[in-house]
């Protein structure tokens, strides 16, 4: 089920909230947890219940049992069993096809490739549970009941595409929240949701009409002109941002309506003045996971600069592979890994020599690097990636046909310019709505969050425009659904 669908907006969400608030008013906390868990499972398995429901239930049950054992024994063998089981599940559904294709290519054999459909959200709920197991092994997790744990994993606002949260951020809130109706909380959450919905429906989907045909043309073997290739990559750069950032805003808004505060996932990443800063702003919960559960266990920066750079490269390569079962994602991760190594080395040299790059130049250099790196992230293959890069750098001497007409190209440039200006110059959602940056302990604050009248009215207008587009057009999936 999609957040940007009529069935979610006008059927699923109203029913879930009405029953939840009724149970909260009756002080039926356990029933409210059970209702919300059941609703989350229905949300997840809506399109394929016989395939998706057993998958997530078995994953939840397996990790709950392993987590309880780890809380009592801190056994390395049990931790290995738990993480191994999670990675085996993820590996089968997400990477079996890639491994077989790579084996066939390397050996010249023809091993039949099984037909495996990637379950939505499997990377997100798997990583969330791996983090819980590691924390349980470290003695940093508390023991919770099965119902709390099931809701922690399946909580529908975050389930499909994140954020990847920690148990210490969410579990205490589920334990203390009474789920009663609160008008200010409803208004605040709906404002977040409406602004996120606008990012997706109005901004991201409008950019897809330029990015998708051009990338498809390149995948079909057509060489793009320099201008068209930059339009394609610029459109996708902004489409991906507004699509995923919009989803994260919607997730935060939905959770706020219920009474749960989710961690932030975006902090205006295209305003970054270095690649290091970019990864502190882009997909923040994934960056945190990779840092805490991969980079630091590998040794982090504790064993000298060479080892630190190797750890960075390994982390980003695996982070790229997490995004998708294709070598183009590994290439994307490797580019960012090498970019981070250069960035860290430059910082060391610049500090020693007293050098400094002006902020506007640093911002442009960072943004151009990120855009070039988005090409393998979006392209169908390595050959398409290199063809796009050659077009962007003007290395294609002859372009047989222009896939984009001048009028359409002008509209694309206007849209890209306007939305890039918003991304670079406008305050982000958490700045506009004064959302706390630190979630741990935030639920204990007695301050009631509510939107200003201006943003409440603005969100209402944005919601109306978005709904009119949803009714007249077929809802589109979020880009991170396939990860």
Describe this structure in words.
The chain is 71% helix and 0% strand. It has 19 helices and no strands. The mean pLDDT is 89. The protein is globular and about 70 Å long.
Please write out the topology.
Layout: H1 6-25, H2 29-45, H3 49-73, H4 76-107, H5 122-137, H6 146-154, H7 156-159, H8 167-176, H9 183-219, H10 226-258, H11 275-281, H12 284-295, H13 305-323, H14 327-353, H15 359-378, H16 382-392, H17 406-425, H18 429-433, H19 453-472
Helix pairs in contact: 1-2, 2-3, 2-6, 3-4, 3-5, 3-6, 4-5, 6-8, 9-10, 9-19, 10-15, 10-16, 10-17, 12-13, 13-14, 14-15, 15-16
Overall structural class, as computed from helix and strand content, comes to mainly alpha
SSE string, helix = H, strand = E? Answer: HHHHHHHHHHHHHHHHHHH
Average pLDDT rating: 89
- How much helix, percentage-wise, in residues? over 70%
Principal-axes geometry comes out as: globular
- Tally of alpha and pi helices: 19
**Based on the structure, what is the oligomeric state of the protein chains?**
single chain
What is the straight-line distance between the termini? 16 Å
Strand content: under 5%
Q: Flag low-confidence runs.
A: none
Radius of gyration: 23 Å
Number of strands: 0
Largest sheet: none
Give keywords.
71% helix, mainly alpha, globular, 483 residues, 19 helices
What is the compact description of this entry?
The chain is mostly helical and 483 residues long.
């Amino acid at each position: 089920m999609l957040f940007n669908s009529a069935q979610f907006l006008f059927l699923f969400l109203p029913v879930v909230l009405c029953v939840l608030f009724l149970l909260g008013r009756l002080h039926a906390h356990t029933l409210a947890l059970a209702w919300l868990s059941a609703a989350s499972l229905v949300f997840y398995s809506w399109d394929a219940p016989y395939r998706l429901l057993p998958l997530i239930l078995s994953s939840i049950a397996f990790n709950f049992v392993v987590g309880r054992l780890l809380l009592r024994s801190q056994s390395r063998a049990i931790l290995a069993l738990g993480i191994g089981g999670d990675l085996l599940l993820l590996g089968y559904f997400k990477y079996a096809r890639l491994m077989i294709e790579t084996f066939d290519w390397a050996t010249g054999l023809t091993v039949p490739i099984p037909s495996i459909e990637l379950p939505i959200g499997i990377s997100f709920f798997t990583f969330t549970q791996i983090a819980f197991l590691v924390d349980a092994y470290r003695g940093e997790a508390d023991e919770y009941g099965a119902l709390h744990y099931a809701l922690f994993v399946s909580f529908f606002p975050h389930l499909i595409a994140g954020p990847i949260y920690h148990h210490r951020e969410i579990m205490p809130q589920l334990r203390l929240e009474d789920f009663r109706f609160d008008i200010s909380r409803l208004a605040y959450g709906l404002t977040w949701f409406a602004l996120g919905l606008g990012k997706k429906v109005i901004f991201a989907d409008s950019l897809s009409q330029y990015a998708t045909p051009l990338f498809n043309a390149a995948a079909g073997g057509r060489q793009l002109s320099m201008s068209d290739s930059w339009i394609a990559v610029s459109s996708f750069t902004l489409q991906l941002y507004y699509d995923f950032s919009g989803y994260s805003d919607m997730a935060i808004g939905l959770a706020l309506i219920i009474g749960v505060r989710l961690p932030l996932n975006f902090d205006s990443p295209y305003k970054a003045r270095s690649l290091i800063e970019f990864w502190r702003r882009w997909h923040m919960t994934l960056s945190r996971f990779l840092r805490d559960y991969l980079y630091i266990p590998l040794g982090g920066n504790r064993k000298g600069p060479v080892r630190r750079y190797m750890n960075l490269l390994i982390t980003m390569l695996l982070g790229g592979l997490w995004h998708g079962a294709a070598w183009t994602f590994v290439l994307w991760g490797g580019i960012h890994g090498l970019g981070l190594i250069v960035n860290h080395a430059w910082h060391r040299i610049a500090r020693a020599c007293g050098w400094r790059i002006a902020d506007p130049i640093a911002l442009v250099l960072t943004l151009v690097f990120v855009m070039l790196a988005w090409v393998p992230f979006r392209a169908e293959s390595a050959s398409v990636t290199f063809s796009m890069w050659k077009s962007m750098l003007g290395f294609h001497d002859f372009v047989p046909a222009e896939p984009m007409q001048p009028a359409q190209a002008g509209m694309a440039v206007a849209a890209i310019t306007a939305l890039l200006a918003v991304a670079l110059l406008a305050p982000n959602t958490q700045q506009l709505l004064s959302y706390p940056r630190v979630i741990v302990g935030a639920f204990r604050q007695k301050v009631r969050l509510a939107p200003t009248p201006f943003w409440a009215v603005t969100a209402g207008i944005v919601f109306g425009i978005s709904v009119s587009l949803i009714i007249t057009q077929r809802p589109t999936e979020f880009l991170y659904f396939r990860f």
